[in-house]
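Example record

One chain of 169 residues, shown exactly as stored in the release files.
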Amino acid sequence: MTEVTAVPRVDLNRYLGRWHEIRRLPLRWEDETATDITANYSLTESGAVRVDNRCFDGEGKPAQSIGEAKPIDETNSRLKVSFLPKFIRWIPFTEGDYWILKLDPEYRLSLVGTPDRKHLWLLAREASAPEATVQEYLAEAKRQGFDLSDLITPRHTGREVTDAMIDKG
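Predicted structure tokens for this chain:
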């Protein structure tokens, strides 16, 4: 089987901002019926990437998960991410892989996966992407050995989880 490979280089500043989840493999901690899933990436003062994931859960309630990602080398295409509270992020083996496997030259679409092939996300700057383009990105996932038989296509309704909704908590 072919080895999972990340893109040669990522300009983190261009990668920052909001992404919409277009497809994903199931995750045990993520509601399969969640809608309007977004990820917003921004730089922290320490140079790490703040990960702000938001969605509406299966009951329509806003949900948020905050994490931090750090590139593992100068290519910025392979990162380690943790969603644990800051005070216990130092514990070993609590980080997950976030490898950028295919990236549109304009930074409009991104295929992200893990080297063990258990996790995969197709992200886009917009809430939808042309089906032909989606299939092109999924073909790359298949080429790298990902099993797409359980692929999830989250619904996007046009709603957005706002700070005010989260603050009400």
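Notes: The longest helix spans residues 131-143.
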